[in-house]
């Protein structure tokens, strides 16, 4: 026996034990592999991140099955080769291989078979956005064929696709139930590892599309445990790498989020999804106060075709350029016609508009967020909506309503295990408590927020809350009598235009007074100035 061929039982053991690195190395060394060996090599190469080698192995397996006059197996190899190309965005080449697979089945007189079920999948994917009901019908048919021919991979893909189609059709509850069913098959070990990563990434994308981040996190934890049992597995590819970084950021795992975002930038370097990866990289750097690095990453995302907002506007806000941030947000909101695009902008729009003293615009955005929360009814959107509504109440001078709403937001953030957002809610609660004269409550809230920001490494937020927590100067302090007068009216919830009319000043002069007040007192916003005024009896 050929000494290399003689190692086949051991190599089979590596494959069955899912030791993918060793399986790939040994299969790649085979001198004259058979068709089945080449299929295994293609799978092991794909699972270890050797995409080009996987393509080559599928091609060779395809040719070997043709030589053996096995058209159905040759068509199956062509499908998997095409599917890998589709996942990397090489649709033209993929289309050619799919056409060949279809021709082989037709010319070979193959009736209903598993391979025909697999070939329904690209058809369904093509209809997913344009015609969800048609996509659902094709996916459902593929699932039926998979069940009939004992193909759990095809059943899982069909179930996944049916869930995606339901979500796109607006039937979110029914859709995510099917997505959960597909993931159960993955974590129960009922499908092959090559399908596991595909299903997970698709589920993660759909969860983000409907802002169901709790579901995304739970499945991420479950799949990570599953992956840990398999050596050298590279299960996460494409856009889901970016969403994994987003989840890590939400959970306060910023060093891991940074590593994952960098990995996504490297792995997706030549693909469209790299633009999103650079944006996510910028987001983590911004939160950590690494502003120059963040700005360059936002610019790289923009160069690659990804909108750099609202992140860049929030960066400008953190740099003290509220007017610049407001102009950018107004522009991007005017251009965002569809609801999905607007949904990603609304929270930042509220924050920026409040910093720019445009309470009506902030209130309108908060109302739109509340409508979105009612429609989607997910914990994340409810938390974002409550946070925005509370901030608007505080800016409008209704501290009592602000406390109640922001407490609800804080509770939701805690349930989502989102420490940064929870700490930001506590800052606003502290300001509202201060406005109500509850100085001990304000101190406790601001201290807790500072502790969380310090633990996270959120340098800009920590600096801001430490300024707020400093014991302020006596009533009036360094302010001029006119500035005290303006501060009283700001604390009453009046806009610059109304204050100008009350004091017979120009609006520009009032704006200058407000800017001087914030600078002298070391305060970041009008809401913080309102808290100062209440604390020191200036109202």
Automatic annotation (TrEMBL):
One of its GO terms (molecular function) is DNA binding. Transmembrane segments: none annotated. Residues 472-537 form the HTH luxR-type domain. It comes from the Bacteria. It holds the Pfam family GerE. SUPFAM superfamilies: C-terminal effector domain of the bipartite response regulators (SSF46894), TPR-like (SSF48452). Keywords: DNA-binding, Transcription, Transcription regulation. One of its GO terms (biological process) is regulation of DNA-templated transcription. The keyword ATP-binding does not apply. The keyword Secreted does not apply. This is Helix-turn-helix transcriptional regulator.
